[in-house]
Specification:
The protein is an alpha+beta fold and about 600 residues long. The protein contains 17 helices and 22 strands. Helix 14 runs antiparallel to helix 15.
Length: about 600
């Protein structure tokens, strides 16, 4: 009995905190509490010393009074920002007039009785207790300090809650969470693989998975029927705001399912997720659907931001009637003259228009034609050619300009941006200009999540660099049944049974029904130009699995990082990943990648060749 009493007493005195720094309020007044955290701010008011103590949950004000605890007060003179401390004291009401309504704990303070400084801190390289701009590489070098900042902690907490919600959602619907290997076989799947040399098998390599695509299909062959995983994926490609060398996806696969089953389930999950965790965000339900062809025609990309209009329109018929030779020659050669109408930009200066022209050229256009429909907003019926501002105005008639403007339902003061060229190029350039102008003019409501589905993707497309065919999705995507005969004669015309979910200009995820028979899978590989021996070498394991009663199946992979980024309202996925790489794919916290020793290379049977 005495031993147990001593253990319980030791545990009581060893507690570093009884409450967190965000939960104390008037109901706790008079209680003795123990808090632990970091010094957010210190203020010396003559005889009294005040600190704001911070932990993950919030702030609590602590007062050190020499009349109440002299030794504790003396220790408090040593405190500086980011010192880690634990302290004990009594919860008291703040003096009348000193309450802080901005804090959940703003009605109370802790009158400290004793305190232990757990660890001192050097002066941090940037402010942690103020929301100020800090150069990103400095933040990433000291990521462990950056993550102490309240907005970063909220991002990481949101990520945790999103993952927990998704796990609960799929578990409640009979899905099994199954881990798949990180060291797998290298097969061509689009991006470059990260390769891992094998020590015990000289000259052979593992690959890190770009996604668990083949493995989850094999789980369906295994009869597990419903699978999900919070999966780490790796792609050796250039970093962007929404792209990292390693990323996390919610991987989902179902047997005996059709497209609509997967789409409806995914939409239900996304709607429930946002309504629960971010109820202040607005969105439309059910999510609208666009075909791939419609998206490319109207928005110039396969992930349009639908929070604003500014659609691309085809002006080829009007342009062919003008006296502008570049328009006439492009249309005669089978190209297109396309445009967007930017609201209220008819008063752009010459330098602003030149900037847009250079931007269009950077996207691949030969040039950009701009037509300002006057400089002052008004009714289009009052437009005259004297009001039209364009370097090509002398080649146009008023009727032609009016016809172009009416195609957009334009107003006086709007600006037409026109690109002539091959249909895909013209659309792509205008899609980029649309995105840029939407950003410059703040056309998109930041409180809106504009979800949509993109459907009817082609199965294969021509790689402009190699001239060969590559899968739009991945090589296991099911073609539309009536298009299967085209695999042998016109493979680029085959449609696929696939779908993307889009939000605010980002692809949140994509999926498809999968091929599940050997014969059809071989036909798709052969349409891409693979020889039988290559097919067997690269994908023989999949083909053999299909011989053992593989069920019809399909699924979707959702980008966790992008979902959390959009819900958090931040600009890059680096803001919602605990330890991301920078834009040069460098981990600045751990300084990776880094050289290895000659001994390590020798063990792996590798030599570094400098060329």
């Amino acid at each position: 009995i005495n031993y147990c009493t001593r253990i319980l007493a030791a545990r009581e005195t060893a507690l570093l905190k009884t409450h967190n720094c965000g939960e104390l309020n008037k109901t706790h007044v008079g209680q003795q509490v123990t808090l632990a955290g970091w010094v957010d701010r210190r203020r010396d008011h003559g005889g009294l010393i005040f600190i704001d103590l911070r932990d993950r949950e919030g702030l609590t004000q602590v007062v050190f009074n020499p009349q109440i605890a002299k030794e504790c007060h003396e220790k408090a003179t040593e405190l500086r920002g980011e010192y880690a401390v634990t302290l004990r004291g009594e919860v008291s009401l703040r003096p009348k007039g000193s309450e802080n309504s901005k804090l959940p704990t703003g009605d109370v303070e802790i009158v400290a009785r004793n305190m232990t400084i757990l660890n001192a801190s050097k002066t941090p390289p940037f402010y942690i207790n103020e929301e100020v701009e800090v150069e990103e590489n400095l933040r990433l070098k000291y990521r462990y300090l950056d993550l102490r900042r309240p907005h970063m902690q909220q991002n990481i907490i949101l990520r945790h809650r999103v993952v927990k919600f998704m796990r609960d959602f799929f578990d409640a619907r009979g899905f099994l969470e199954i881990e798949t290997p990180i060291l797998i076989k290298s097969t061509p799947e689009g991006a470059r693989d990260y390769l891992v040399p094998s020590r015990v098998h000289p000259g052979k390599f593992y690959a890190l998975p770009q996604s668990p695509q083949q493995l989850k299909q094999l789980l369906m062959v295994a009869g597990l029927e419903k699978y999900f995983q919070i999966a780490k994926c790796f792609r050796d490609e250039d970093c962007r705001a929404d792209r990292q060398p390693e990323f996390t996806q919610i991987d989902v696969e179902m047997s005996f399912a059709e497209e609509e089953d997967i789409i409806q389930m995914t939409e239900e999950m996304i709607i429930s997720l946002v309504e629960k965790l971010k109820p202040g965000l607005k969105f439309t339900k059910p999510f609208p659907r666009l075909s791939y062809a419609e998206a490319m025609e109207c928005y110039g990309c396969d992930k349009p931001d639908l929070r604003f209009g500014v659609q691309i329109k085809d002006l080829s018929d009007i342009a062919a009637q003008t006296e502008l030779s570049v328009f006439k020659s492009v249309v005669a050669a089978g190209g297109k003259v396309k445009a967007i109408c930017v609201p209220g930009c008819g008063n752009y200066s010459r330098s602003q228009l030149e900037d847009l022209t250079q931007l269009a050229r950077s996207f691949g256009a030969g040039g950009l034609v701009t037509i300002a429909l006057g400089t002052v907003p008004g009714n289009l019926d009052g437009l005259t050619m004297e009001m039209v501002k364009s370097a090509v105005a002398k080649y146009l008639t008023l009727d032609q300009v009016m016809n172009m403007a009416r195609r957009f339902n334009a107003n006086m003061g709007d600006l037409l941006l026109i690109v002539a060229g091959k249909p895909r190029l013209a659309a792509t350039v205008l899609g980029e200009l649309r995105k840029e102008m939407g950003h410059r003019l703040k056309l998109a409501d930041p409180n809106v999540l504009s979800f949509s589905w993109l459907v009817d993707f082609p199965l294969l497309e021509i790689d402009e660099k190699t001239g060969g065919l590559q899968p739009v999705r991945h090589p296991f995507t099911m073609p539309v049944e009536e298009d299967i005969p085209l695999l042998a004669i016109a493979p680029d015309k085959v449609r696929s049974r696939s779908y993307d979910i889009i939000c605010n200009g980002y692809e949140l995820g994509g999926g498809s029904l999968r091929i599940y028979t050997r014969d059809l899978q071989k036909k798709v590989f052969q349409a891409r130009g693979y020889k039988d021996e290559e097919i067997e070498e690269l994908f023989g394991h999949m083909l053999e699995a299909f011989d053992y009663g593989a069920p019809p199946h399909g699924g979707i992979a959702l980008g966790l990082d992008r979902i959390v980024m959009l819900m958090a309202g931040v600009e890059t996925i680096r803001e919602v990943i605990a330890f991301p790489k920078n834009q040069s794919a460098i981990d600045l916290t751990l300084n990776a990648p880094s050289p290895v020793t000659e001994e390590q290379l020798a063990e792996l049977h590798l030599n570094i060749r400098n060329e």
